[in-house]
Amino acid sequence: MAGGIFSPLGSCSELEKANCHPLVCLLCHEPYQHPCLLDCYHNFCASCLRGRASDGRLRCPLCGHPSVVRGGTGLPPVDRLLQFLVDSSADSEEDVQCANCDRCCTKAELDTMYFCNTCGQPLCAPCREETHRARMFTRHEIVSLSKRTKDIHKKCPLHEEPYIMFSTEKKSMLCINCFRDMQGESRAHCIDIETAYMQGCQRLDQAVMAVKELQTSTREAIVLLKAMIEEVRNSASEEEAAINSLFSRMQEQLSERKKTLLKAVQSQHEEKEKAFKEQLAHLASLLPTLQVHLVTCSAFLSSANKAEFLDLGYQLMERLQRIVKLPHRLRPAQTSKINSEYRAEFARCLEPLLMLSPRRSVVGSAGGIGPGITGTNM
């Protein structure tokens, strides 16, 4: 009966599709058998909840709220109210026979049946008119069949006496013996059954009105949340489209600027390389000249006598001095560093796109703009 009960209901949509009859379990989809009430006020069959408790707690299969369970059964208490409704529903499905004429009524005719709480017998409509209109039955309590009073609710199980009072303090019915056994201050909270019934109906009406208001508010909240879910879905689509569009435009701008920057780098490279090669050629041509003159000086000193030295030595010295004084470019006129200022150029090409249509940023708890992007980095 409870096959697959250990797979929890996943979402509200699944709950809406499920059988939501008030007397049918949401797990096994069968009429309740010993319905148990959890702390979250959800009901399930005892067999559907058996084995789910862990460390004295039982998590609701519907909403996940944990409930404290006591005792060795590992189950919450049986919901007496729901069990009463289940029993009443079962009773209403049984065939009803009039105690006076033995006429059996169909299910369609049950609304026209009556019940005499005094006699404890069902009556059909004709017999109620014919038999229970006599004066001797004037004190009999005749109600519709659905509102009959069962024996369990007529007499006190402790004293076997009919109930006559109701304790508003203990919320329980009292027979005459229960009333006599009570202490004096507790008797002040006792009223008769009829008055208690009227007061209870009024309080129940108030409670029902509060629940109806909550029901209306809940439905309005559900409609609002569904609308917001649709709105957030549309907003996400729009945001994704805007991001993709801006990213494409940024890619185009960056690609164009990249080409320009690469051309600038290539141009600087060619200019610097040409200048360095020209300077290298000049120095390469100067080195042999210096070598030749050094060898010449060495040979002249070793071979010339004093007269020859005085005749040609000063001419050699003037030549060497003129060679040294020539404008030789021994140091590079420029650095080898190529600088395209690509960071600033990329930022300048993106600035018009980012400032054109400013969009609100998603600021996180640490002041970040989106995941992994902080205001400082941006």
Automatic annotation (TrEMBL):
Q: Cite the RING-type domain residue spans from the record.
A: 25-63
GO:BP terms for this protein? Answer: positive regulation of membrane repolarization during ventricular cardiac muscle cell action potential; regulation of cardiac muscle contraction; regulation of heart looping
| Main localization (coarse) | cytoplasm
GO molecular function list: Hsp70 protein binding; transmembrane transporter binding; zinc ion binding
Q: Where is the B box-type domain?
A: 93-145
Instruction: List the SUPFAM superfamilies.
Output: RING/U-box
A GO CC term assigned to this protein in UniProt: perinuclear region of cytoplasm
State the compartments where it is located. Answer: Cytoplasm
A Pfam family the protein falls into:
zf-RING_UBOX
Which keywords belong to this entry? Cytoplasm, Metal-binding, Zinc, Zinc-finger
Tell me the domain of life. Answer: Eukaryota
Name by which UniProt lists this protein: RING finger protein 207
